[in-house]
User: What shape does this take?
Amino acid sequence: MAETKVLEKKESGLTFGKAERKLLTDPLDSNNPITVQVLGICSALAVTTLVSKAFVMAIAVMFVLAFSNLLTSFLRNSIPKQVRMIVQLVIIAALVTVVELTLKAVNYPIFKELSVFIGLIITNCIIMGRLEAYAMSNRPWRSFLDGIGNGLGYGIILIIVAVIREFFGKGALGGFKIFGPGVDFLVDTSAISWLSWYAPNNLMVLFPSAMFVIGILIWIHRSWNPSLVDIS
Amino acid sequence: MHSTNQVIKFVLIMTALVAVVLAGMNTFLKPTHDKNEAVYNKRAILAAVNDYLPSPVTELSDEQVEEIFSKISQTVIKVDGTSVDKEGVIAAGYKEGTASSIDMGKERKKPENEKILPTYGFTGEDGKKYWIVSVRGKGLWDEIWGNIAFEDDLNTIAGVSFDHKAETPGLGAEIKDNKDFYSQFKGKKIYDGPELRSVYVRKGGAKDPDYEVDGISGATITADGVTEMMARGLSYYEPYFNSLKG
Amino acid sequence: MELVNIFIKSAFIENLALAYFLGMCSYLAVSKTVKTAFGLGLAVIFVLGITMPINWVIENYLLADTGPFGTDLTFLRLILFIAVIASMVQLVEMVIEKVSPPLYNSLGIFLPLITVNCAILGGSLFMVSKEYNLSESIAFGLGGGFGWFLAIIAIAAIREKIIYSDVPPALRGLGMAFILTGLMGMAFMSLMGIDPSAI
Assistant: This one.
């Protein structure tokens, strides 16, 4: 009797043991939202043209994911079954609107660049998917961690794709031109003959290239982790 | 399984909470939003005279932008060349009554005789006088707009800045992002004798050194949009320019 | 004539799936067989066709300055649009369940999945930014849905055939679907900018 009581007490606290760490590390590899769960693709294509955009988006998604997981988990026993989906969507939509209003006040130029995509965070299947799969049946602290973990998994893929696309598409990273003509950071190749042949690959700036890059990333990911072959 | 009553209560409480939080945030942040938008527009206008600013517009802080802008003379005109006073601008729907508060998107939809347009008079770091006007048109997917700066002769372009709602990154969006494109406009002329010829964005490369610029490969429709926007937009200012030249 | 142009434009030239890459999650997850793709595509056409006019009314009569509340309520746009979409999908689900149980069974989980299909919300947001009137919005909605339907059937057909090809194990399935979609997207890029009304 005393044993189970002690166990229960431990679980309800804000512990950070093995199970919690798994919530953070699984989505980085074996349960990655983009490359395994096939979620969150649309935004991954559109915002990965620039590393700065991808970074802001990843943070926004992680925020909405973590807090909507948290809120839904708090309410999970009181949400009436008949309106379950609508309530989840309202929580997500409200949080996204909070992000939008905040971004508009804090950094207007980035807000202008990302406006449509912020709205589309609501339909980012990762958020809905994790609410259904995890937050509806788990405790708030763990749901919060699950949200952060999936946000990290999503963010990593986003940044990798953005780095590849911005580097090869514009010869720049984070807005700094690294090579190519007229550079202002590292190497001005209009003077250096052995690098000046590189004309930025314009295809990288367009949507289809994101599909190719992610496809190849999946190929590499599954070759490195063979347990994922044929999983989806 | 919850009863219908419980469902209705839950939904009502949730709706009320969300409405209060969002409405509260919006009301609280609206002044900041409006201020940010106004500064953003002013930056775009100053970007057209980027070369004559104390530092490049991307390095200026918001306060510096406001300070420089406060020294600019703003005049609002109609297409027939007459000027509009502050009350007229307010009556047209712009609460602040200044040229920079005019929404070019809204004006684009009005018939020609009802349009009101902003003009700006700016003195650069080099001591010379520059005139800036605003134009708006249509790109491939949605609207595009820009600010054109002229030297005192109201003929030679001193600089331009373009922006868009939804052009393709890497293609149409280059009108805004690619310095190699928009810097071409500097030095081009818009008048050929007495005739307003404007600048032609030519696919495949400019042929005439004074009146044409190179197009953007893969963005012909957007480039054509720029040509059209400038030709039409500048024609609205023609009577006013004539009155200035005296 | 203008309406037909908008339909053609949103179905073939500004294809929601292959030109804008919207609705990719369900597009990639549901396209393993033509049969399931067909069902989802039909449902998407239907939901887009219904939610477009409703959202138009909301945008122009409730949220605009001229609406009953007299102030600019556009910050509520996202929530209201998504609520409309969710309710419509719920409604469609109930109707199909009553009217045609076999269809309901074959669609299964795909029906609720439409709620989070970015093509639906994206379509409504495009309608707002393009400032279409009511009939144009309906044409845009039906055209967009039809285009998405054609796109998902096309890739499902290819994926059904490619099972018989010698694809590297790590690339099989999802990885290959990404590359195929990328190639189809490139093909659609060549159609960009065609104006049907000019033909």
In short: The first helix of chain A runs from residue 2 to 12. Chain A has one domain: 46-220.
